[in-house]
Design a protein that fits this description.
Layout lengths: L1 E5 L9 H10 L4 E4 L29 H10 L5 E7 L6 H14 L4 E5 L5 H5 L8 H17 L3 E4 L4 E5 L13 E4 L5 H8 L2 E3 L5 H17 L8 E5 L5 H10 L3 E5 L5 H13 L3
């Protein structure tokens, strides 16, 4: 079992390079940073967790810049987007950002992605909520072409470009692992088709066992080895018994959530979470 930690990095939280050093010193495997480019003031889309939307959602730093800062301060810690809203990003530019992070970190990037929940946020980027998953699929497939081909091209419904030169290429081959966030009705189909791992938020053990079995069946149907697809639980409950159940279910990594707080608040939390790793 591997252990990671996720945080909204903001101007009022611990700095990413400092957090990276502290995580690595305690033996954590990975740092996960989420993304929101902005939050529309209208607030038409309700917060999925209920209640008021926490202000860190519109204060968060850019994930790739934050992860690069952490990369420069560490040597082993993996650097993950958790999650990157690819439906709000240009795939050619994002392919370069992921590959650059992987190069600068000597092959430590993890590309966690998702479809997002804030309809008006993605509308500001020209993305329609109903077609976001088709858009995401094409952008992932196009990025894979860019990462693996010296002269990449892609022609789809949403993404369309003739042969291009785009470097650098990632250190990891064929590319950094792509993990799909979410647990919707068709999430596992996307994982089996074009991802390297599944990244759901905390689930009940029985439901998780059933879903992993379903993922394995879908992977086999797609001609893939189920063992090649990892399962990471995001927002895992920081309790030893819960972690043991997840490991028994086939989970290979858990990610603990941390508040967007300063060093004095974060370090004791890291110490408590680190005790669960032994």
């Amino acid at each position: 079992m591997q252990f990671g930690a996720s945080i909204f990095i903001t101007e009022y939280s611990i700095r990413p390079e400092e957090l990276g050093r502290e995580l690595e010193a305690r033996g954590f495997e990975s740092l996960w940073i989420p993304e929101h480019t902005h939050i529309p003031v209208s607030r038409r889309t309700p917060y999925p967790a209920g209640g008021d939307l926490p202000k860190e959602y519109w204060h968060t730093y850019d994930p790739f810049l934050s992860l690069t800062a952490a990369a420069m301060a560490t040597t082993r810690l993996k650097l993950a987007t958790g999650i990157c809203l690819l439906i709000e990003r240009d795939p050619i530019t994002t392919a370069k950002e992921v590959a650059t992070l992987d190069r600068l970190s000597n092959g430590r990037a993890i590309f966690g992605i998702g479809g997002g929940w804030n309809a008006e946020e993605m509308e500001n980027h020209g993305t329609e909520y109903k077609s976001r998953w088709r858009l995401l699929r094409e952008r992932v497939l196009a990025m894979k072409e860019i990462w693996t081909k010296d002269e990449a091209e892609f022609h789809g419904e949403f993404v369309n470009f003739d042969p291009i030169w785009a470097f650098p290429k990632p250190v990891q081959k064929p590319h950094p692992p792509i993990l799909m966030g979410g647990n919707g009705a068709t999430t596992l189909d996307r994982v089996a088709e074009f991802c390297d791992g599944w990244l759901p938020i905390t689930m009940r053990s029985n439901d998780l066992v059933e879903r992993i079995a379903e993922l394995n069946r879908k992977a086999e149907a797609a001609g893939r080895d189920p063992n090649s697809i990892s399962v990471t639980i995001f927002a895992a409950k920081p309790e030893r018994a819960a972690i043991e159940k997840l490991e028994q279910a086939g989970v290979s990594r858990v990610v603990f959530l941390m508040p967007p707080a300063d060093r004095e608040t974060i370090l004791p939390l890291l110490d408590r979470y680190a005790e669960l790793m032994s």
